[in-house]
Amino acid sequence: MQNVRDPELPGRLLAVERDALIPLLRSRAEEDFALPVAACPAWTVRDVLAHCSAALTRVVENRFEKGAFSPESNDRDIAERAGWSNAQVVDELERGMTEAGPAIAKAGGALDLIALGEWVHAGDVRVAFGEPGAYAGAGLPYALALLAQATTERGHVPLHADLDDLDEPLRLGDATGQRPPARFIGDGSTLVRLYAGRPVDRPYELAGVEAAELNILGD
Question: Domain Mycothiol-dependent maleylpyruvate isomerase metal-binding spans what residues (predicted)?
Answer without folding.
Answer: 16-107
